[in-house]
User: Which sequence fits this backbone?
């Protein structure tokens, strides 16, 4: 990773992920066996809890579910209009491109639309690049669809960033956690299993 902050968030995200999951499963964090599943998405080998994480700029988001696939996307970068237009032509459906072209706030709307698509595709686990135009969402709606499967959306903003959580299924409960719910301390002091980067 090129930037020190991004590398630190990467490690912090995996650290918190292990501690939060370990606390819920009653398993020491280092004993959790997390590997890539057949779609290339990190998953617990023994199954059960679903999880996902995202980081952008100085922000980090984690999502957990004991019952449904989850995907979370956080985006803090605001792109210039010419870059938005290029990305829209390449990755978005025609009606989405038209919506953005008529938007009063194309930067914010693009950021929101992009997080919806990425969160849904991360919940699905099948890859992002070739599927962005296949995620169907109407702005303001609480559901998005991908391959006829519904995903319940939870959206928000923090420090200028857009955040979307996608949960497989039409209904889902939500409980927000704080870092205090995950671990008593946030210092990474030893090797973390299954990570290519260690402190």
Assistant:
């Amino acid at each position: 990773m090129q930037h020190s902050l991004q590398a630190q968030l990467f490690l912090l995200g995996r650290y918190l992920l292990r501690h939060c999951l370990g606390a819920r499963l009653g398993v020491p964090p280092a004993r959790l066996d997390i590997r890539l599943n057949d779609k290339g998405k990190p998953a617990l080998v023994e199954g059960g809890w679903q999880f996902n994480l995202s980081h952008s700029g100085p922000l980090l988001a984690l999502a957990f579910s004991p019952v449904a696939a989850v995907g979370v996307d956080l985006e803090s970068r605001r792109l210039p209009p010419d870059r938005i237009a290029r990305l829209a032509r390449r990755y978005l459906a025609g009606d989405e491109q038209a919506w953005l072209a008529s938007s009063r706030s194309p930067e914010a709307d693009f950021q929101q639309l992009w997080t919806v698509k990425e969160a849904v595709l991360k919940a699905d686990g099948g890859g992002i690049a070739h599927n962005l135009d296949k995620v169907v969402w109407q702005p303001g709606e609480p559901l998005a669809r991908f391959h006829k499967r519904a995903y319940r959306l939870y959206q928000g903003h923090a420090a200028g960033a857009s955040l979307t959580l996608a949960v497989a299924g039409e209904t889902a409960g939500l409980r927000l956690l704080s870092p205090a719910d995950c671990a008593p301390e946030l210092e990474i002091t030893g090797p973390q299993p299954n990570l290519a980067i260690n402190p």
